[in-house]
Write a structure and sequence with these properties.
flat, 7-stranded mixed sheet, TPR-like_helical_dom_sf, 628 residues, signal, alpha/beta
């Protein structure tokens, strides 16, 4: 043990006892709930928290386990995860303090890999390399495989053998996927930028031709050629880098260099559009396309022309990913709009992030903007609807107690959870919640349970000529996240059980003439949120409806409206004089606020999710009226 490590061990020991002194009888599980931590469970909870990405919380539990269980046969497992956490945090010395305490008889491939990688990071390349060479990477999970190749490459680099480093990183790229692959590419980029001689760069360009590393090498050679005044060679090399079919993360830099060396813009004044133009969702795709083409027609009448290049998002997610690459590199578009469906959107988002081309998706699939900074969403989401409703009910009307009557399907459960959370965040309470079968036609039992009544008790007899006496509902409003046809069956039964005066709250699925036709007076006064209202008094909406109806001979739905807005947002951003590259466009989208769309004023939060002012609609005298 080195002197440095001895000191660090004393520090860690002190930290252990501090943890022990402050250890409580409770921990926080993966869902944020506090639960008792026993000796037996703290290790497992620590591992689960680490695997969920909550390293700091895992660190506290695992340290506590080590302090309290110094004779436990499970100590090597705790040491291994503590070593992993410190390694992940860029603290290889502290990682080694734990890893080196694991007995030789209990060594595993995982331990050898971590110890070897940590040694390389501390500068002990020879010792680290000798350990890493004992590891068989093919049997490792993707993350550890990337760690293996990255550490091996770093060791070779420290030995002054950068071409071998690049070869190892190339091997790693062949057997890993994002996000590990991105880290390996970043490591290769560092080598290409700073550690290769001119002769080595030339050799690397030959060795790795057609790969992401080869494209990166061409970019470096192009930079050198331009700096040396050879614009023709710079242009040729930059063009090769830009047109590479590989997932090359520095394509934007290559395009910029190509612009400088050729004196013209590489990117077209064009936007790619991915929509379902064939198959079961083709009708929806065509409606969105109509809205986009109307937006383009209006734009090109008064601004420099832009092209919309439509492509079919296809039947498989891989189809949309391939189209993203072709639009980004073959058609050289500034940005891409779409896709509409979840699977296609997820694949397109991943590829758009790799290609660094801004993507404005129209899908409601969870987690799309979280794919990366190049991915934005312009679509009505369930959370937006709930937030608009709760702001109205709690903030404006002062209601505090709510009940939820929901269909027992994915939509119903999601809305029920979102509504409960939002009500609580606004200081209200959900006091009752009942679900019903998706195709149910009788809701008496659920309604009586909501009111706190015995659903099996016999109905009280009503006096002749009078309605049965009903106790007052223990809540101020009822939320029903279902579609118009089903709400039409529920509403009359609510009235029968004395809830006819209770405010009803709904979702955009209520925005249908069927609701008025089937439920009639039973939904009078009901309120719901939607992303588009055909009869809105908003002049922007009125103009859109008039233009669309004149062009296509029928009224638009929310699909055409969303297409109109998605195209309008991208076209408006493209018109800004400062937007000359995809990065400029990305920045402009990030800063967009209060875009006057027909689906509500629109901006984007820091994660790329749209923030909209939705339409709040109420049933008044048998018609839908906008009340905001």
């Amino acid at each position: 043990m080195t002197g440095f490590r001895g000191v660090r061990l004393l520090v860690l020991a002190a930290a252990f006892w501090a943890v022990a002194a402050s250890a409580t009888a409770a921990g926080v599980d993966l869902f944020g709930e506090r639960r008792p931590v026993t000796t037996e469970s703290s290790l497992q909870q620590g591992i689960e928290l680490y695997q969920a990405g909550r390293s700091e919380e895992a660190l506290g539990l695992l340290r506590g386990f080590v302090v309290r269980n110094y004779n436990s046969p499970q100590l090597p497992t705790a040491y291994l995860y503590l070593g992993r956490i410190f390694f992940d945090q860029g603290r290889p010395d502290e990682a080694l303090l734990y890893l080196e305490r694991i007995p030789a008889a209990q060594r595993t491939q995982e331990l050898t890999l971590l110890e070897g990688a940590a040694l390389v990071h501390t500068g002990e390349a020879e010792r680290g390399l000798s350990l890493l060479q004992q590891v068989a990477p093919d049997g490792l999970p993707s993350r550890d495989r990337a760690l293996f190749y990255g550490a091996m490459a770093e060791a070779k680099g420290r030995q002054g053998r950068p071409l071998e480093s690049l070869a190892l990183l190339h091997q790693g790229l062949l057997s890993t996927a994002a996000p590990e692959a991105e880290k390996l590419l970043a490591q290769a980029h560092g080598l290409v930028q700073g550690q290769l001689s001119d002769a080595e760069l030339a050799e690397a360009a030959f060795m790795f031709r057609g790969t992401p590393i080869g494209a990166d090498v061409n970019l470096k050679l192009a930079e050198q050629a331009l700096a040396g005044g050879d614009r023709q060679r710079a242009q040729q090399l930059a063009d090769e880098a830009v047109r590479s079919n590989a997932a090359f993360p520095y394509r934007a830099e290559a395009a910029s260099l190509l612009d400088r060396s050729s004196g013209s813009s590489y990117l077209q004044r064009a936007v790619g559009v991915l929509l379902p133009l064939s198959g079961r969702y083709a009708t929806f795709g065509q409606l969105v396309r109509r809205g986009m083409e109307l937006a383009l027609e209006i734009h090109n009448q008064s601004a420099p022309a832009v092209q919309l290049l439509f492509r079919d998002s296809g039947a498989e997610p891989e189809d949309s990913a391939r189209e993203v690459a072709e639009l980004a590199n073959g058609q050289r578009v500034m940005a891409i709009a779409g896709p509409l469906t979840g699977g296609a959107a997820a694949a397109a988002a991943t590829r758009a992030q790799q290609e660094r081309v801004p993507l404005l998706t129209l899908s409601q699939r969870d987690g799309l903007p979280e794919t990366g900074p190049y991915v934005f969403r312009n679509s009505l989401t369930n959370l937006q609807q709930v937030q608009t409703l709760v702001r109205y009910a709690v903030g404006e009307k002062g209601l505090r107690r709510f009940a939820i009557l929901f269909p027992e399907n994915k939509l119903g459960y999601e809305f029920a959870e979102l509504f409960s959370r939002e009500v609580e965040a606004f200081g209200g309470r959900v006091v009752a919640r009942e679900g019903y079968a998706e195709k149910a036609t009788d809701f008496r039992r659920q309604v009586r349970l909501l009111k706190g009544e015995n659903p099996d008790a016999p109905e009280k007899e009503a006096k002749p000529g009078q309605a049965p006496a009903r106790p007052e509902a223990p809540f101020d409003a009822l939320f029903i996240p279902d579609y118009a046809d089903q709400v039409g069956l529920v509403a009359p039964q609510l009235a029968f059980y004395g809830l006819d005066k209770l405010p009803l709250l709904g979702i955009n699925g209520w925005n249908s003439p069927d609701l008025l036709r089937v439920a009639g007076r039973y939904v009078e006064g009901a309120v719901f949120a939607d992303g588009f209202f055909l009869a809105s008094s908003n002049p922007v909406v009125r103009e859109f409806v008039a233009l669309y109806t004149a062009k296509y001979g029928e009224e638009p739905s929310i699909l055409e409206a969303q297409g109109f807005d998605a195209a309008g947002i991208l076209l408006s951003v493209l018109d800004r004089p400062e937007v000359r590259s995809r990065e400029d466009l990305l920045q402009a989208l990030t800063q967009l606020r209060d875009y006057p769309g027909v689906t509500g004023t629109t901006g984007f939060n820091g994660q790329g999710e749209c923030e909209k002012g939705l339409f709040l609609l109420q049933v008044q005298n048998g018609e839908f009226r906008q009340i905001n």
